Amino acid sequence: MDFAYPRPQLQRANWTSLNGPWRFRYDDELAFTRPQDIDRWPQQIIVPFPPESQASGIADRGFHTACWYQRDFDMKPGRDRVILRFGAVDYSAKVWVNGHLVATHEGGHTPFSADITQFLEPSGRQVVTVRAEDDPHELTKPRGKQDWQLEPHSIWYPRTTGIWQTVWLERVPRTYVDKIRWTPRVDGFQIGFEVRVRGEQVDDLSVEISLSHGERLLARDRYQVIEGEVDRFIVLSDPGIDDFRNELLWSPERPTLLDARVRLMRGNEVIDEFISYTALRSVHILRDRFMLNGRPYILRMVLDQGYWPETLLAPPGDEALRRDVELAKAMGFNGVRKHQKIEDPRYLYWADKLGLLVWEEMPSAYRFTRTAIKRIVREWTEAIDRDYSHPCIITWVPFNESWGVPELTAVREQRHAVEALYHLTKTLDATRPVIGNDGWESSATDIIGIHDYDANTEHIRQRYGSEIPPEQLFDRRRPGGRVLTLDGYPHRGQPIMLTEFGGIAFQGKPEPGVKKIWGYTKAETAEEFAGLYEDLLHTIIHTALFSGFCYTQFADTYQEANGLLNADRSPKIPLERIRAATIKSRTWIPGAM
């Protein structure tokens, strides 16, 4: 397993992965409440792969309510603190170290941690135990594409239970930096820099920050820590002319990252040190266009479910994440819409480094209750906090296709929920556009996203062509049988994007265990598949109404065989041919890029 440091924007040298073999058992009867209650561990699992996956060694996709994990690790107590960190555990977790409860967390897609220093045994031999509870039938918790039926059906996939991202230990000083946050401001050539300090309170604390681009030092500043915080803007020298400015700006075409070295100082003594990175880039909406670094930018995106055949929601490793970013770019896309998943931070790192835009979307719950909304608010808040500093993320999407709020046209409380999540998101991050509800029934939103899976290009031209007045589009066109905007929320000139379309099913490679494939349109041959894609893309690209698009989808996902790639990421047709269609060319010459 090639798992790299799990938190790419706050990297310390002293860390230990706890991925690998753990003792494991199911607890369907909820018979155990403490590690001491368990006298037998009948199975072994490979963390961080969920027990439903082949890679875990369990491969059990049945209904299970709870499960337990346990493993030993060596860690001698010392002057430093020891932090135990979890990338994600689905859905609620309790963690014990040497029999002491050290952490509880609810939310299947976001990280949590515990300072376990005081619970370490002097001998250095330690035991960590995890209990994960995830009722497979519960529809009021955010679950994304995880099916509640025994076998995956339609557009839902196998469930994920328990640990599915990296578990690791980190040694930190008694006083240490717990959080860092970057906010670029291109118009002033500034970068906002926030630090939160935790641990023992000491006097005369300051933070030294160095920013560089390659060998070129851009800034070296030092700020006093006041009440455990630093919150400053670092002003860089503005090169002036666009050619020089563009060298420092981040974009998919030129993903310039600025390296950062951060030191926590007590007087002149370095007590904590780590590396990070940031970027200069801006995103905003100007009338009917999405703007990147102050210029109109057409979004060419692909919808990505973030599943792998052997590992489900968990990535097989760091190289697999990098390869997915490289493949999206090789197919001519400049962005992805991560669908119904808060993706592993290592994916976001590779998107930052290689240059790929990302729309981040909250996994849906499927019943509207007060409990469901509270859960969504808590987990969405944690996701924004985790991913705020990644330059690749350009849009937040709290709801998709009215999932979890199915009566938006009639039920006032459901409309308020969407509007509240929109405004909460804008409050937590005022720097990015927000789509309140993507697909239809828009209310509070910065972009109107339309989902339309009609593969007939003539129908697409008739619905969205230049001769169609916008008022007619919103009054009469109802893709999916849904109105595009709710009463009281007429189109205010926001960008209009086709954020789901295509869905052409073609089985390039039979997927083991999949008896019947699913898609919105089916192609029988590779040539038919390629022709449908080329015609659709040509039509969408030349429809002036759209300021961006998102094709469904990146890769086959179980029974949903509508990927441009097979589930194993091999292409169904040559990547060069996909790329040619994606970037406005109808002509593909074999061997040409």
Automatic annotation (TrEMBL):
Residues 318-503 form the Glycoside hydrolase family 2 catalytic domain. GO terms for biological process: carbohydrate metabolic process. GO terms for molecular function: hydrolase activity, hydrolyzing O-glycosyl compounds. It comes from the Bacteria. Pfam families: Glyco_hydro_2_C, Glyco_hydro_2_N2. InterPro entries: Beta-gal/glucu_dom_sf (IPR036156), Beta-mannosidase-like_N2 (IPR054593), Galactose-bd-like_sf (IPR008979), GH (IPR017853), GH2_Domain-Containing (IPR051913), Glyco_hydro_2_cat (IPR006103). Keywords: Hydrolase. Transmembrane segments: none annotated. Residues 66-146 form the Beta-mannosidase-like galactose-binding domain. This is Glycoside hydrolase family 2. It comes from Ramlibacter henchirensis.
